[in-house]
Amino acid sequence: MIDTEQVAAHDTCPRLQTWGSQFNFPRVSLTDAMYRALRVGLLSGSPAAAKDELISIASRPGLDITAYNVFDIAMHHASMMEVVCAYLIGTVGPWKAASAVSCGSFGFQPLSYQMSDGRLRRVVLCSSWSALREEEERQSWRTVADTCITGRPMLVNAIVIGSSRKGFRPSPWTQAYIHPENGIRRVKKKEGVFTDNWKRVYRESTDDGPEEWLTLMQKDGAFDDLVRYFTAEVPQRRDEYLMDVVRISKEIEQKKTEMRRSGCYRYSPCGFSKLCNHSSLVTPEMAGWERKL
After folding, report:
1. What are the residue ranges spanned by the domains of the chain?
2. What is the pLDDT, as a whole number, of residue 183?
């Protein structure tokens, strides 16, 4: 049985996929931690579970970030994932994981979600959104593999969480401003920007629940700039893409460990880059990494 992430990882670098399936990373990247937390929250229908999952990951094995205030950064992102999860769940309740399917001689587990109308659904967390980013997500294996193998179209939700600034992501998902005179809180101004006399407050330092925060965001019309979506249909070249997936699945079974340098520093450093680029090849086991059970 292979899954969506294995296909995407193998296409980036076979060694990344093979080693990643055998060993646990000493630390978890913040991006991976957010997606893992969001999945727990969506499948359980509990925004609080998303928050707890990220805090748990930050506690053990820990986040792969270097900062003096790692705990504050973890709490900030955990609070943000709680709000994002609450927004996505809405009144629908728990999301349903897509069922495993067969593709040729192997089983495949889509990591997208199953909607009641038959479509798949996927969530993209991004710092910004553009036509180029939309096209990238349409052509991503995370979209193409799931739609081709299941034969189902996919609704892709893009959630703009903003850029990281010293470990924090200031945006309406995470921060509000308090008026200096009347104490009214706002997350977004209709015109202009908040001046220095407005006091900034992060949600994790307030007593607001996720639903209360979403109400505040809705009053200020914040979702228009932060939420995007599109539907990816089943590709017309489906048969060609399925042949690629079959090829990749066979290579995964063979546990290939060829290295592709183009994948070392694409969006962030690969967790194995320090081992691969050592003066001599150092495997995770040689470096004392914990092997998966």
Report:
1. 2-276
2. 81
